[in-house]
Automatic annotation (TrEMBL):
<keyword id="KW-0698">rRNA processing</keyword>
<dbReference type="InterPro" id="IPR001680">
    <property type="entry name" value="WD40_rpt"/>
</dbReference>
<dbReference type="InterPro" id="IPR019775">
    <property type="entry name" value="WD40_repeat_CS"/>
</dbReference>
<dbReference type="GO" id="GO:0005730">
    <property type="term" value="C:nucleolus"/>
</dbReference>
<dbReference type="InterPro" id="IPR015943">
    <property type="entry name" value="WD40/YVTN_repeat-like_dom_sf"/>
</dbReference>
<dbReference type="InterPro" id="IPR018983">
    <property type="entry name" value="U3_snoRNA-assocProt_15_C"/>
</dbReference>
<dbReference type="GO" id="GO:0045943">
    <property type="term" value="P:positive regulation of transcription by RNA polymerase I"/>
</dbReference>
<keyword id="KW-0539">Nucleus</keyword>
<dbReference type="InterPro" id="IPR020472">
    <property type="entry name" value="WD40_PAC1"/>
</dbReference>
<protein>
    <submittedName>
        <fullName>WD40 repeat-like protein</fullName>
    </submittedName>
</protein>
<dbReference type="Pfam" id="PF09384">
    <property type="entry name" value="UTP15_C"/>
</dbReference>
<dbReference type="InterPro" id="IPR036322">
    <property type="entry name" value="WD40_repeat_dom_sf"/>
</dbReference>
<feature type="repeat" description="WD">
    <location>
        <begin position="125"/>
        <end position="162"/>
    </location>
</feature>
<dbReference type="Pfam" id="PF00400">
    <property type="entry name" value="WD40"/>
</dbReference>
<feature type="repeat" description="WD">
    <location>
        <begin position="163"/>
        <end position="199"/>
    </location>
</feature>
<keyword id="KW-0677">Repeat</keyword>
<feature type="domain" description="U3 small nucleolar RNA-associated protein 15 C-terminal">
    <location>
        <begin position="373"/>
        <end position="518"/>
    </location>
</feature>
C-alpha cells in the first residue's frame, strides 16, 4: 500500500538576532515623554527618596520641585543671587540643600520654602556638590572650586570637617554607603580620593588616578564599587581589592552624569551614564556591557531615575528637560478596558447593555435540537480527532511527478516566492536535479530565476544556494550571451550586485580589523 502524500514543509532558516531584547522592551515602556524648556542649562536632577518621589531640577538661579504625579512644578526656590548648583533632597524628603556659584550653601524647608541654614565658607568659589548624608539627617557634604571637600552639621554655624589635599577644582563628591565616616571625591586634578572623617588634614586613605579631569562619581550600594567619569570614559574600581575592574569606552564625548537604577525589576540594578554626545547608556553591572541606549536632542548634563523606576529625567545643556514615564497599573487597566470595548463593538455587541452579537435560537429550534448536544457521562466521552487532508500545492505536485522545471516555475509564482524557491532549490539539490530544472529554458523562463537571484543575493542565508545556481546558469547558457538584450541586461545586473556584495564584505573585514586593534589596545591599556 502506497504511503499517503504529505505536504513538503518549507525550509526553516537559522533564527536571526531578536529585533528587541527584554532590556530594550523594558526601557521602551518609558513611553509618556514630556519636554519642558527651562531658563538655563540643567545642572542637576535629584529625586526624593520618599514616595511619591518628587524631583528637584537645578537650572539658572532656580531650584524647581516637580510633582511626580502631575510632572508639573509644585515649588520654586529662588533665593539665589548666583546660578544655583546641585539641589538635592534629604532622606526624609522634607528638606533640600543647594549651593551656588558664589560659594553660598543654603538649606530649605520644602513645605514653606524658608531658609533653614546658610554657610559661606567657600567664599566666592562655585559649590559644585551639596548632599545630605543618607544616614545622618543633620550632616551635609559639599565640594567646591576652592579645592576642598567639607562636612557640615545643621546645628553648627561652621563646617565640622574640611578635607584638603586636592590640587584643582573638586567637581564630584559622595558619601560611601555602609561607611558613615567615608567620603569619596574627584575633580580636575585627575584623581579619585577616598577620605575618612576620623582623620585630620590632607591624609586620604586611598587614591586612584585617571588620564582626564573627573566630572561625576557614583558609589554603588554596599560601598565597595566606585565609578568615575573621566572624559568619554568611565572607570570602575573595587575599593576593597584596591584595583580597577572595568573601563567603559562607549561614549564619544565627556560623560557628565552617572545614575543608578535600583527599582524592582527583572535582572537587578543598572547603571546609567549621560554624556555630551547626547546619549544615555544603560549598563549591566554584572558584565559592564551596554544593555540599552537612548539618544537625546542636545548634550546631556544631568540624569536621574526615580527609586520606583517610574520616571526617567534627563537635563540638557540647552535648558531642555526630558521626563519619560512608565504606565501605571491603573493606566494599563484603562488600556485593557478600552481594548475590550472595541472588541465588543467589532462583534456587534453594545458595550453598555451587553446585548447584540449572534442571535440566540428560537424556542422551536431549541425543541428540535433538544438532546443533540448531550455527550454522555465523563467516562463515555470519546474524543475524535479528524485530520483534514491538505491539498498539494502546484509546485509540490509537479515535484512529486518529477517535472522539475515546471515545479521551479510554479514555486516562483507562489505567494511566498522567497522561502518557497529556497525550499525548492534545496530539494532539487538533495535530488541532484538542479541541472534538470534549469535545462532547456529560453529568455522568458530564465528571467524570473535571474531576478530572484539578484533580489536575494544580499541575504547571507541564501548565498551558498544562489552562488551554485548562478554558476550553473552561466555554465549552461554562456553561449547565448549577445543574442538577447534582456538576458544580457539581467546578467550585468547580477554581475554588479556580486561586485557590490564583494565590496561590502571587504569593508566589513576592514572594520572588523580596526575594531580588533582598538579592543586589543584598550585591553592592554
Amino acid at each position: 500500500m502506497a504511503a499517503p502524500v504529505t505536504r513538503m514543509p518549507l525550509a526553516r532558516l537559522p533564527a536571526l538576532p531578536a529585533a528587541s531584547t527584554p532590556e530594550q522592551r523594558y526601557w521602551g515602556t518609558f513611553k509618556s515623554h514630556l519636554l519642558i524648556q527651562e531658563y538655563g542649562a540643567i545642572k542637576s536632577i535629584n529625586f526624593s527618596p520618599v514616595s511619591p518621589h518628587d524631583f528637584a531640577v537645578t537650572a539658572s538661579t532656580l531650584v524647581k520641585v516637580y510633582s511626580s504625579k502631575t510632572r508639573a512644578v509644585s515649588k520654586t526656590i529662588s533665593r539665589f543671587q548666583a546660578p544655583a548648583q546641585s539641589g538635592s533632597f534629604r532622606s526624609d524628603g522634607r528638606v533640600l540643600v543647594a549651593g551656588d556659584e558664589g560659594g553660598l550653601i543654603q538649606v530649605f524647608d520644602i513645605g514653606s520654602r524658608a531658609v533653614i541654614k546658610t554657610w559661606d565658607e567657600h567664599k566666592g568659589n562655585t559649590v559644585n556638590v551639596t548632599k545630605f548624608s543618607p544616614t545622618n539627617v543633620t550632616q551635609v557634604l559639599s565640594a567646591s572650586d576652592d579645592k576642598t571637600v567639607r562636612l557640615w552639621d545643621l546645628t553648627s554655624p561652621q563646617s565640622t570637617h574640611k578635607f584638603i589635599g586636592n590640587q584643582d577644582y573638586v567637581r564630584a563628591a559622595s558619601f560611601v554607603p555602609g561607611s558613615p565616616h567615608s567620603v569619596v571625591s574627584g575633580g580636575y586634578d585627575r584623581a579619585v580620593r577616598l577620605w575618612d572623617s576620623r582623620s585630620v588634614g590632607d591624609h586620604w586613605s586611598m587614591e586612584f588616578n585617571v588620564p582626564a579631569p573627573i566630572d561625576a562619581l557614583l558609589v554603588l550600594p554596599g560601598g565597595t564599587t566606585i565609578l568615575a567619569s573621566s572624559g568619554p570614559t568611565v572607570y570602575v574600581w573595587d575599593i576593597v581589592a584596591a584595583r580597577r575592574v572595568a573601563v567603559l569606552h562607549n561614549h564619544q564625548k565627556s560623560v557628565t552624569s552617572l545614575a543608578l537604577s535600583t527599582g524592582p525589576r527583572q535582572g537587578g540594578r543598572r547603571v546609567l551614564t549621560g554624556a555630551l554626545d547626547r546619549h544615555v547608556k544603560v549598563y549591566d553591572p554584572a558584565t559592564w556591557k551596554v544593555a540599552h541606549g537612548v539618544r537625546y536632542p542636545a548634550p546631556i548634563l544631568a540624569i536621574g531615575i526615580s527609586p520606583d523606576e517610574k520616571h526617567l529625567a534627563v537635563g540638557m545643556s540647552n535648558g531642555l528637560l526630558s521626563v519619560r514615564t512608565r504606565s501605571s497599573g491603573k493606566e494599563k487597566e484603562k488600556a485593557k478596558e478600552k481594548e475590550r470595548v472595541l472588541d465588543m463593538i467589532a462583534a456587534g455587541i453594545d458595550p453598555i447593555t451587553g446585548k447584540g452579537g449572534p442571535k440566540s435560537k428560537s424556542s422551536a429550534q431549541r425543541r428540535r435540537t433538544r438532546g443533540m448536544d448531550y455527550k454522555g457521562e465523563g467516562a463515555d466521552i470519546v474524543v475524535e480527532q479528524k485530520t483534514r487532508k491538505k491539498k498539494e500545492r502546484p509546485w509540490e505536485h509537479r515535484l512529486r511527478k518529477g517535472n522539475y522545471g515546471d515545479a521551479l516555475d510554479f514555486a516562483l509564482m507562489s505567494s511566498q516566492p522567497h522561502i518557497t524557491v529556497f525550499t525548492m532549490l534545496g530539494e532539487l539539490r538533495y535530488r541532484n536535479a538542479i541541472n534538470a530544472a534549469l535545462a532547456n529554458r529560453d529568455e522568458n523562463t530564465l528571467r524570473p530565476i535571474l531576478r530572484w537571484l539578484i533580489k536575494h543575493l544580499p541575504n547571507s542565508q541564501y548565498v551558498s544556494t544562489i552562488v551554485e545556481v548562478s554558476l550553473l546558469i552561466l555554465d549552461m547558457y554562456s553561449h547565448d550571451l549577445g543574442k538577447s538584450p534582456e538576458f544580457d541586461k539581467l546578467l550585468r545586473r547580477l554581475h554588479l550586485r556580486v561586485k557590490q556584495e564583494v565590496e561590502n564584505s571587504k569593508q566589513s573585514s576592514l572594520i572588523a580589523g580596526m575594531l580588533d586593534m582598538l579592543l586589543a589596545g584598550s585591553a592592554s591599556g
